[in-house]
């Protein structure tokens, strides 16, 4: 049973869950999640009733609620795609966000102990990151580790951590082609490590086990236009990851990956996934070089300013690949406008 010591930041953190089904999976997470506030974003048919186990403190938003709250700006929130979760980021009033998918269960470490994923994410976020110089003992702020010989003393304070990216046991987060050629592959490797992703290095962010400091990077944690009516899906979290990494590098913030693990219980259909990813598999060969070359001006001193400037570059450069990116660039601006309306500066 979780102890009170593990319920860190219970008044400063929201758990955001996108779903189309009853949330029975929360029973397994009850010892870890029950003290926290949940924001549930219901995708799909808004007339369907989603059942939440008793004892949880939550608010639930469906598509009708999103349309009512955002009005015309609701067009920036994806429909029939887990990207709808970012609406929860927008309406939260807390400093930290943890988001998890409803097919993710509690994993166990090699000793058989249940892993409190949320507590590990909080540890990651509350300790500095070291993006400017790689430490070969990984996270120097973990118990039993430190900076190795040769690590510059001037860089040992690190930088604030904006994002904590967790991993998965059992079903790996593979794209459709990899799923098709490795249908039976399961991840059984538990690597006891947390790393800061170096400055200038992109990564494929997965949104199913993710935490972030909403005050530091929330306004850029937009999962794009995916799903219903869009030519692409399953790139929502990765799009957000590429954007936030460029902005974190520019603003001097850190991104960590590694622990904690969750148990990913269900493999999605690779043929359905291939239809969703088809354009993205081609487009990413141009999207990645775009982000690798992207720079932000000195005038970009806030996340919002960074994100709007990035949207202009998306329109100008990626818009040549497909008209979808012009639409996406517009949605990025709409997202920032909606964010600022719901989150006026104090």
TrEMBL record:
SUPFAM superfamilies: Nucleotide-diphospho-sugar transferases (SSF53448). It is found in: Golgi apparatus. Keywords: Cell wall biogenesis/degradation, Glycoprotein, Golgi apparatus, Isomerase. Coiled coil: none annotated. Glycans are attached at residue 149. GO terms for biological process: cell wall organization; plant-type cell wall organization or biogenesis; UDP-L-arabinose metabolic process. Pfam families: RGP. It catalyses: UDP-beta-L-arabinofuranose = UDP-beta-L-arabinopyranose. The keyword NADP does not apply. The record marks 149, 156 as: Required for activity. One of its GO terms (molecular function) is UDP-arabinopyranose mutase activity. Its EC number is 5.4.99.30. Probable UDP-L-arabinose mutase involved in the biosynthesis of cell wall non-cellulosic polysaccharides. This is UDP-arabinopyranose mutase. It comes from Olea europaea subsp. europaea.
């Amino acid at each position: 049973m979780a102890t009170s010591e593990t319920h860190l930041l219970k008044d400063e953190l929201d758990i955001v869950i996108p779903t189309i089904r009853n949330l029975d999976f929360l029973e397994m997470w009850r010892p870890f999640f029950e003290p926290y506030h949940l924001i549930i974003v219901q995708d799909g048919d808004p007339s369907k009733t989603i059942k939440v186990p008793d004892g949880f403190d939550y608010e639930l938003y469906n598509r009708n609620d999103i349309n009512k709250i955002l009005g015309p700006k609701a067009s920036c929130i994806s429909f029939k795609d887990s990207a709808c979760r970012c609406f929860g980021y927008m309406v939260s009033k807390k400093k930290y966000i943890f988001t998890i998918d409803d097919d993710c269960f509690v994993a166990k470490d090699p000793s058989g102990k249940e892993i409190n994923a949320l507590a590990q994410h909080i540890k990651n976020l509350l300790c500095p990151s070291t993006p400017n110089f790689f430490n070969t003992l990984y996270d120097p702020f973990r118990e039993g580790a430190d900076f190795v010989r040769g690590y510059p003393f001037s860089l040992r304070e690190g930088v604030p951590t904006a994002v904590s990216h967790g991993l998965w046991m059992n079903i790996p987060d593979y794209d459709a082609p990899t799923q098709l050629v490795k249908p039976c592959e399961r991840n059984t490797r538990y690597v006891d490590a947390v790393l800061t992703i170096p400055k200038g290095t992109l990564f494929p962010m997965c949104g199913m086990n993710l935490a972030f400091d909403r005050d530091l990077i929330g306004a850029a944690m937009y999962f794009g236009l995916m799903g219903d009516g869009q030519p692409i899906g399953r790139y929502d979290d990765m799009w957000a990851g590429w954007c936030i990494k460029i902005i974190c590098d520019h603003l001097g913030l850190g991104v960590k990956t590694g622990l904690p693990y969750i148990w990913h219980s269900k493999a999605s259909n690779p043929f359905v996934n291939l239809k969703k990813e088809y354009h993205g598999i081609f487009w990413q060969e141009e999207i990645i070089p775009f982000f690798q070359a992207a720079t932000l001006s000195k005038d970009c001193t806030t996340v919002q300013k960074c994100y709007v400037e990035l949207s202009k570059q998306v329109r100008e450069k990626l818009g040549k690949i497909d008209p979808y990116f012009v639409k996406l660039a517009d949605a990025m601006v709409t997202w920032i406008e909606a964010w600022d309306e719901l989150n006026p500066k104090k």
